[in-house]
Design goal:
Strand 9 and strand 10 form a beta hairpin. Helices cover about 25% and strands about 35% of the residues. The protein is α/β, with parallel strands linked by helices. It has a 5-stranded mixed sheet with strand order 3-4-1-6-7, with no helix packed on it. The chain is built from 4 helices and 10 strands; from the N terminus they run H-E-E-E-E-E-E-E-E-H-H-E-E-H.
Amino acid sequence: MKVFILVLFVTLISGCKSDRKGEIHLLPEGYTGGLVIVYQDLNAPPLPLIDGYYIYNIPDSGILYTSTSINDGSILTSKLQFYHKQSNGGLIKINGPLTRSELSMEKVKNAIKENELYVFSEYTGASGRYAYSSYMISKSNETEEIWLHMQNLISKLHKKSNHD
């Protein structure tokens, strides 16, 4: 019985480790809205990988195309980082990402400040031969408008995938 408990404990602990590369998302200064990352686009460049982190340099359109495969697996939220680029070369960290399950937790709901920007984690999905992940960058009281913007970005991806 003790051996079974030890094996179960080791299995649970090993399942908690992060097996994905870290991600640093660099957004244009002041960007809010939907953000879609499209993977496996053979006409796009691969993501740079620096010190174990993929660098996502998000364009003004909010859609980044890359030939890199989706970064599968579990990841610690501390390894998912989002920043606004500044004209002076500096970076400003954006709060989050917050997942749907976290948003339903009272302690997280009460900690969200209405006038601060957050990254809200949304979907990972596929359209034709592309895989994508998407996020919303918004203040907590603006999420519905931003969600509609993100849906518009994803519909553009579906149209592109139907033409490829």
